[in-house]
Amino acid sequence: MSTKLCYINKNVISCKKIINYKRLITAEYLIKKLINFIDKNYDMKIVNKICLSIPGVVDNESGISKGLSAIKYLDKVNFKMDLQNKYKKKVFIENDSKCAALAELKIGNAINSTNCLVLVLGTGLGGALIINKKIYKGSNFTAGELGCCLNNLDNNNFINYSNLCGMYSLQENYFRETGFNKSGYEIYLNYNVDNYAYKLINKQIYYLAKLILNISFIIDFDLVLIGGAVSLNKDFINLLKEKVYNLLSKSGMINKFFINVCKHYNDSNLLGANLLEDNYD
After folding, report:
1. Nearest CA to 227 among 150, 85, 82, 130?
2. Cα angle 113-208-221, degrees, rounded to a multiple of 5
3. ∠ at Cα 59 (6, 147), nearest 5°?
4. How many CA atoms lie within 13 Å of 211's alpha carbon, on the beta-carbon side?
5. Hey, CA dihedral for 120, 108, 230, 225, is it positive or negative?
6. Which of 40, 174, 219, 277 is deepest in the core (most CB within 10 A)?
7. Which is it for strands 258-261 and 223-227: parallel, antiparallel or unpaired?
8. CB proximity list for 68: less than 8 A, separation 6 or greater
């Protein structure tokens, strides 16, 4: 789990820094860490706005965030208001997957797409929907929260697709089976030489492919884009394509959409957040 910070000027990222966390964190911890890190590493005198891409269900006008998230107690902190009051700058905020989708829609691989599904694999699984060339948010800002979709109930526990597809769960499951702590990157690196990595990755890919297929019958999108750090891994995207198209052929339906990675990979959410000012609605 991590937080990325940077300057962006004319869609060019500079001075990018990353705060890494060894465990899941709370919103109260994050806002304190964020302000302290900004004060030590960035010159706010040259900044004209602050743009936030965060997990959870986000009301970008009020700044209120809530819902399921890898960051605990999101509703206890209003990041927009806190940073606005601290730095006296305009602050724009949106869900991280919707930010990634906005970047891909405006300056990325979804420019020529009409209806697109964007999935971001990070700590959990985030999603966003582009319908008729616009980000669709729904009635309660929850549209695209595909990581929250129910897969099954296990002893009355709600098992969602973040539990099944997120990188945090992949790492936890690997540790549970082997006793070794490895990053998602390391697990994927060992796909062909480690039976545990092979089994767990194939399981992750299957659930992700199943979700994509099911959503395709609801939205009828022409493109699926995958973001997050894992999108840089060619083995991952090839395995996913193979599994999706295999399941699609079994369904009896035609192959009607393409699968690709986000043009800006793990930085799509940063670039999308920077575009919020001109695309707020």
Report:
1. 130
2. 20
3. 80
4. 30
5. positive
6. 174
7. parallel
8. 56, 124, 145, 147, 148, 160, 162
pTM above 0.70? yes
At 149 the pLDDT is: 83
Q: Tell the residue number behind the tokens 């991280």, with chain if given.
A: 96
Same fold, 2-98+268-278 and 112-264: yes
Q: What is the DSSP letter of 62?
A: T
Q: Are 267 and 13 in contact (CB under 8 A)?
A: yes
Q: Compute CA distances 179 → 62, 172, 195, whole Å.
A: 44, 10, 14
Domain 2-98+268-278, CATH homologous superfamily name and number: ATPase, nucleotide binding domain (3.30.420.40)
Give the per-residue pLDDT at 21. 84
Amino acid at 96: D
Sign of the four-CA dihedral 91, 94, 99, 103: negative
Terminal-residue alpha carbon distance, the chain: 29
- What is the architecture, at CATH level 2, of domain 112-264? 2-Layer Sandwich (3.30)
Structural domain spans, the chain: 2-98+268-278, 112-264
* Tens of pLDDT, residues 26-46: 989 999 999 999 999 999 999
pLDDT in tens, 117-160: 999 998 889 999 999 999 998 888 888 888 888 888 788 888 88
